[in-house]
Amino acid sequence: MVLAGAAVLLVALGLVALMVVRPSAASPSEGATVSRSAPAEDSVDAGFARDMAIHHQQAVEMSFIVRDRTDDEDVRRLAYDIINTQANQRGMMLGWLEVWGLPKSAAGPPMAWMGHTVEPGDDGSLMPGMATDAELAALTAAKGEKAEVLFLRLMTVHHRAGADMAQAAAGSATTDVIRNLAAGMVRGQQSEMGLMADLLEERGAKP
User: Fold this and answer.
1) 0.90 cut: is pTM over it?
2) What is the pLDDT of residue 116?
C-alpha cells in the first residue's frame, strides 16, 4: 500500500517538475504557469499549500485502505479517483513551494493563514476533518460494507473541512495557481460529497 501511494506521488511530482521547468509550454489562461512573484512564507498561498498537502495525504491513505477492503465497484472507483486527483494536487502544491523557495512545512501550528490556528490533539488528527488514529485503525480493521460505510463517513467529514479550507484560499490567495486550484477543489469535493451521500443512502446509513 505504501509503495503504491509513493509511486502515485512520484509520478505527480514528476509531472509538476516538467511544468515548472518549461513554464512557457502552456498558456497562462490554462493555469499551467507559476507566478514569477513568489508569495511570502506567511502568505495564504504558502499556508494553504502546506496544510492542504497534509490534508490530501490522509485522504489518499484512507482511499488506499478502503480500496483493498471492498469489492464494491462504486466505492473502489471513488477511492481510485481520490487517490489520483489528490495525489496529483498534492504534488502540484509541493512543487510550487519548491519553485517559490519556501519550506514545505510550517514553523507554527496549521491554519494560521485562515486567521485562526489549530493545536493538533493527542488523537492524531492534525486539522479539522482529518481522521484520528483510532478511526484509521478501525477503517484498516473493517471489511466489506462496514469498511465502505466507515470510509464514506470519514471522507465526507474530510471533504467538508477541505472544501472550507479551499474556499478560504480561493477568495484570499494572491497567486492565480492557488486561487484556481482551490476553486477547483471546492467544486470537486462538493460533487464527491453528493456522491458519497448517495452511496451511504444506498447502504441505509447516514453521513
Assistant:
1) no
2) 80
